[in-house]
Structures are given as C-alpha cells and as structure tokens.
C-alpha cells in the first residue's frame, strides 16, 4: 500500500524524475516466485519508462519508518537498565586487566577484548539515550573491522563454529565508522550462530558499476556473510529487518534492524538470500574512489 501511494503521487504531481520500486512480484508462467527492483522514469515526450531488474536477494526495509515512538521509548528504557550492569562489568574487567601481568598472552587478549566490547556497548547505549549527529566517517580498512568480528566470534563460538576468511586483499580503504560497522557485521555473524550454523564465511569482493541506492558507483565493496544454518523462516522473509522481528522466543529482534540501519548510515544496502543450509547476507558499500566521494560518504 505504501508503495502504491508513492506511485500514485509520482504519476500525479511528483517533481522527481525517477521513482524506485522495491520487490516487485514477477508473474512468470511455470516458474517459482521471482522479484525485481524497478525504476520508473519520465520521458521528454510525456511518456514513462519502466526498467526492471530481477533480484534473488530481499532488500532491507528501513526500520526508521517502522519504529514508533513507543518502541523508541522502550529502547531508551532498556538502555537505562543496562547501564548499571555494564558499569559493574567494566570495573571487573579493569580489575582483571590489572591482575593479568602473570597470565599468558591468550588470556590477556581475551581480557582486553572484554574491555573493548564494554566500551563499545557503552557508546551504543549513549547514542540510544542521547541521539547526536552522525560522526564524520574515517578512512578504514574493512578487513581490520572483520578481524575484530572474528575475535568476537572465536570468543563466543569456540570450537563449535568454524569462521573462515575469504578476503580480497586489493580492496582499498573506505570511509566509515569502524565501531558501527563492527556492530553490524557482528550482529549478522551472531544471527548465523543462532540459526545453528557450523561454518560461517566472511567474503569481500570489489564490484564495478554497481547500483547502490539509486546511484551507480564505479567501485563498491561487496561484503558477504555466508552460513550453513537453518535459513530464514518463510514467514519472516518480508519483515526480517524490522525491529522486534525474531524467529527465536528469546530473541530481541533488534540485531538485524540495527545492521540495516548501519548500512544506510554508510549509504549502502543490506540484502539477503536464503534456503536451508545456505544463507547469504550481502552488505554493499560505496568504495573510496577519491576525495570527490567524501561528501557522499559522510554520515
């Protein structure tokens, strides 16, 4: 209905030249359901041009459009409740760090990881309680972010889950918020763990001429989180990225919504494709191609 309203306004009096249409159902004879992304453009002669591109991945819905004031207040209440236990954990981590002189290197690294993650969670809570303008994005190596996620994955998954690297070392730096990207990718990896995955792969590739959010980029980063878990339940397929949507009774339904929000903060997209035993979440981010892109990539 929302998409239909947007189409009606566009046809009647919208000043835009192009309207993007999401997840158009394709009625193909004797074929499984397929979907497409569409772009409706005005022609100089008064006509219309509709371009459609079949897609196998589901686009992430924007949770900010589905996050009512009541839910925002609930999140702030949750943040308040978490501050005290986090303060206790921070004190305990600092005490452990002071006593770590005689421990082996692996134990010291784990203690350091605890402290780092507590600080990151504190920063996240502060953002929930006191929203501030997005921080300017810094030049960063995406593989440094992924290595931080791997440390978290090894600490949580242990030997029960195999996490593999499939990196393209030629990928240049991007402009981004390292903490936010770490949170987003970690949420996707934890989602794989919770889906029963025994193998997770982090794959990076360069894309050329990729369309991201109505703009074609000469170079872009494709980051895929691939797992062999149970897949996305069919009943959640269209709502997976919305807040409070979870396939687990104990799930908060916030992890994927936050990951999708982070992708938008970086002017990227987050999509997925899934079947039992093979799920792929794909994060597309504009590549740092030169100084002229900085104004587009700042959050």
UniProtKB/TrEMBL annotation:
<dbReference type="InterPro" id="IPR003661">
    <property type="entry name" value="HisK_dim/P_dom"/>
</dbReference>
<dbReference type="InterPro" id="IPR005467">
    <property type="entry name" value="His_kinase_dom"/>
</dbReference>
<dbReference type="InterPro" id="IPR036097">
    <property type="entry name" value="HisK_dim/P_sf"/>
</dbReference>
<dbReference type="Pfam" id="PF00512">
    <property type="entry name" value="HisKA"/>
</dbReference>
<keyword id="KW-0547">Nucleotide-binding</keyword>
<dbReference type="InterPro" id="IPR003594">
    <property type="entry name" value="HATPase_dom"/>
</dbReference>
<dbReference type="InterPro" id="IPR004358">
    <property type="entry name" value="Sig_transdc_His_kin-like_C"/>
</dbReference>
<keyword id="KW-0902">Two-component regulatory system</keyword>
<dbReference type="InterPro" id="IPR036890">
    <property type="entry name" value="HATPase_C_sf"/>
</dbReference>
<feature type="domain" description="Histidine kinase">
    <location>
        <begin position="77"/>
        <end position="289"/>
    </location>
</feature>
<keyword id="KW-0597">Phosphoprotein</keyword>
<protein>
    <recommendedName>
        <fullName>histidine kinase</fullName>
        <ecNumber>2.7.13.3</ecNumber>
    </recommendedName>
</protein>
<dbReference type="Pfam" id="PF02518">
    <property type="entry name" value="HATPase_c"/>
</dbReference>
<keyword id="KW-0418">Kinase</keyword>
<keyword id="KW-0067">ATP-binding</keyword>
<keyword id="KW-0808">Transferase</keyword>
<dbReference type="GO" id="GO:0005524">
    <property type="term" value="F:ATP binding"/>
</dbReference>
<dbReference type="GO" id="GO:0000155">
    <property type="term" value="F:phosphorelay sensor kinase activity"/>
</dbReference>
């Amino acid at each position: 209905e929302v998409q239909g309203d947007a189409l009606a306004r566009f046809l009647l009096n919208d000043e835009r030249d192009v309207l993007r249409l999401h997840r158009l159902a394709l009625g193909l004879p004797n074929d499984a359901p397929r979907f497409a992304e569409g772009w409706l453009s005005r022609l100089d002669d008064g006509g219309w041009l509709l371009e459609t591109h079949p897609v196998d991945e589901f686009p992430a819905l924007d949770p900010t459009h589905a996050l009512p004031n009541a839910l925002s207040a609930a999140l702030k209440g949750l943040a308040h409740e978490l501050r005290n236990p986090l303060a206790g954990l921070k004190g305990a981590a600092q005490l452990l760090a002071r006593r770590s002189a005689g421990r082996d290197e692996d134990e010291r690294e784990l203690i350091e990881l605890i402290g780092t993650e507590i600080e990151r969670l504190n920063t996240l809570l502060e953002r929930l309680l006191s929203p501030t303008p997005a921080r300017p994005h810094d030049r960063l190596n995406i593989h440094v972010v992924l290595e931080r996620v791997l440390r978290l994955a090894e600490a949580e998954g242990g030997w029960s889950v195999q996490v593999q690297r499939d990196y393209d070392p030629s990928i240049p730096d991007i402009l981004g918020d390292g903490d936010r990207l770490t949170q987003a990718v970690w949420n996707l990896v934890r989602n794989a763990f919770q889906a029963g995955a025994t193998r997770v792969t982090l794959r990076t590739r360069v894309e050329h001429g990729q369309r991201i959010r109505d703009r074609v980029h000469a170079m872009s980063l494709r980051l895929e989180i691939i797992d062999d878990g149970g897949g996305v339940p069919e009943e959640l397929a269209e709502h997976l990225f919305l807040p409070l949507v979870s396939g687990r009774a104990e799930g908060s339904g916030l992890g994927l919504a936050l990951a999708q929000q982070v992708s938008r903060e970086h002017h990227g997209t987050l999509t997925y494709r899934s079947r039992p035993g093979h799920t792929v979440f794909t994060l597309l981010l504009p590549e740092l191609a030169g100084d002229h892109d900085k104004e587009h990539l700042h959050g």
